[in-house]
Amino acid sequence: MSETEKLKELQHQVADGAIPEAGLLGRLVVKLGMVFAIGIVLSALILFYEVIMRYVFNSPTVWAHETVVFLSAIAFIFGGLYAAALNRHIRVVLIYDTLGPRLRRAFDVIISAVCMISSGFFAWASWQSVKRAVWTPTGDIHIETSGSAWNPPYPGMMKVFLLVILVVLAVQFFVLAINYARRKVED
């Protein structure tokens, strides 16, 4: 990739967030990322509140720890999808950076296809967990709870969220593979 192409890509990412190959889905994912960033800030505020309540007023909460864990977990789960939309996922650059433009495009397509298939398998595995976390053996809907004194449905909600993110991630990698394959390569 020439310096001009790198500059154009960087300018587009700064203006839009997602790489062009991520398409509309990538742009939506990047915009939605702010919600999860706010969740991390909210987690910090809840922890601060818990410390004040516990050590200043000697009145700890029953909800703070599980809420912070849930908010942090969904932010990290979403982070994988966010990284894919920004093309910031892990890559062995020792090999990748030495490739010419045509071979790099081929690698982008192959990497995206492999990631799509992997995400699909992980989504299927996640579905197995969701079935147990959302439905009782008799078929009634009952979302898995934490079993603590507060007993929120966070574990079941997190499993459903993971399934949704993995499905969207598989779709995002499909979009990336198609758009990488369509991308015009200059020698």
Automatic annotation (TrEMBL):
Q: How does the protein associate with the membrane?
A: Multi-pass membrane protein
Q: Which UniProt keywords apply?
A: Cell inner membrane, Cell membrane, Membrane, Transmembrane, Transmembrane helix, Transport
Broad class of the protein's primary localization: membrane
Query: Taxonomically, which superkingdom?
Result: Bacteria
GO MF, one term, reads: transmembrane transporter activity
**Domain Tripartite ATP-independent periplasmic transporters DctQ component, residue spans:** 44-174
Positions of transmembrane segments: 34-57, 63-85, 106-127, 160-181
Per the record, a Pfam family?
DctQ
Localisation: Cell inner membrane
Its GO CC terms are:
plasma membrane
The subunit structure is:
The complex comprises the extracytoplasmic solute receptor protein and the two transmembrane proteins.
* Functional description taken from the UniProt entry: Part of the tripartite ATP-independent periplasmic (TRAP) transport system.
Give the protein family: Belongs to the TRAP transporter small permease family.
* Name of the molecule in the record: TRAP transporter small permease protein
Q: Which organism is it from?
A: Pseudovibrio exalbescens
